[in-house]
Specification:
alpha/beta, Aspartate Aminotransferase, domain 1, Aspartate Aminotransferase, domain 2, 2 domains, seven-stranded mixed sheet, four-stranded antiparallel sheet, 14 helices, 11 strands, 40% helix, 17% strand, globular
Length: 358
């Protein structure tokens, strides 16, 4: 259970661990947008910035792609799921998945009624066994049941954990054996990539992923995500679906400029690596804190932990920004999120305050 309430947080807060959405824009990306603002250019994504961004994504993923830039992760997820699911279909998701809990029914809306079927799993992860059980509960071919057509996995998960390549391959294998498509919600794709130390291709299409929501906003962009389809046949209707959903921006060059700058010279990977490093430092400090503990393994840039109540009170009084996240009998359950511009001195100050109060 989540509690979106916090104390002591205001604009300009130090020790900001509220969310990577609360961070600003990387200077390199802001500069790229300013450069794209010089002069006039064709609209609706028919511009050199968008074309170069699409070409760069194809290089990054080592193959030709169908790419559609949008402004939000919700739109990316919903459009991708609509591309692989019919209105009478169903999508297996983890019970904590963002598409299930935090997108206000957008996937159901964009798919014109497809049903999300939540499944349990430790550490925010789907398992092949859970999918097999879900298929038993909703047999294919029965007219009274929604017909399973896809699975959606979050990489990074809502618990801050990361699917290994073997886990993605196993999920894709069971999906393919039942003719289900595989969607990856990659809102924190770069953080997962840094965690695994693999290539984008290895974490997606080589492991059986059909469509990817490639996130940049949480990792230093102002607002750009990519709908990526590895099967060109799935892309035929996407231009019309994007337009109908209000995601075909007339000044699309500013999406293209962001994505191009994001991918230039490994900027995206460096920012994600920094965020992950800051989370690891927080996790190590909390584990060494008397009465402190981690709720889930810390594998990317989110830390779910339990703090002693005195430490929580001291941090709130000092203006630290983070969310209480559920209830624990022996302390305060919290979520901390680091980003590309998290300062190491803020991490040190947070841990120092917690140690002194515990």
């Amino acid at each position: 259970m989540r509690f979106l309430a916090c104390g002591g947080w205001s604009q300009g807060v130090v020790m900001n661990f509220m969310s990577d959405n609360a961070s600003g824009v990387a200077p390199e990306i802001m500069s790229a947008m300013a450069a794209a603002n010089d002069g006039s250019i064709r609209g609706y994504g028919d511009d050199v910035y968008t074309q170069r961004a699409g070409g760069r994504l194809s290089e990054v993923f080592e193959r030709e792609l169908s790419v559609f830039l949008v402004a939000t992760g919700t739109a990316a997820n919903a459009l991708n799921l609509a591309a692989i699911t019919k209105p009478h279909g169903a999508i297996f998701v983890h019970e904590m998945a963002h598409v299930h809990c935090d997108e206000c029914g957008a996937p159901e809306f964009f798919t014109h009624g497809a049903k999300l079927l939540p499944l349990a799993g430790e550490n925010g992860k789907l398992t092949p066994g859970a999918i097999e059980k879900g298929l038993q509960d909703f047999p294919q071919g029965i007219v009274h049941h929604p017909q399973a057509q896809a699975i959606s996995l979050s990489q990074v998960t809502e618990c801050g954990t990361v699917y290994s390549l073997a886990e993605i391959e196993a999920l894709s294998s069971v999906a393919k054996s039942h003719k289900l498509r595989v969607h990856m919600d990659g809102a924190r794709f770069a953080n997962a990539l840094d965690s695994l130390g693999c290539t984008p291709a290895e974490m997606t299409w080589k492991a059986g992923v059909d469509v990817l929501s490639f996130g940049a906003t949480k990792n230093g962009a102002m607002g750009v995500e990519a709908v990526i389809l590895f099967d060109e046949a799935l892309a035929a209707d996407l231009p019309f679906m994007r337009k109908r959903s209000g995601q075909l921006l007339s000044k699309g060059r500013f999406l293209g400029a962001q994505m191009e700058a994001y991918l230039k010279e490994g900027l995206w990977l460096g920012m994600a690596a920094h965020a992950n490093k800051m989370a690891a430092l927080l996790a190590e400090g909390i584990e060494n804190l008397p009465g402190g503990r981690l709720r889930y393994p810390v594998q990317a840039n989110q830390v779910f932990a339990v703090l002693p109540k005195p430490a929580h009170k001291a941090l709130m009084a000092a203006g630290a920004g983070y969310y209480p996240w559920g209830r624990e009998p022996d302390g305060v359950s919290i979520r901390l999120v680091t980003s590309f511009n998290t300062r190491e001195e803020d991490v040190a100050q947070f841990l120092s305050l917690a140690v002194n109060a515990a």
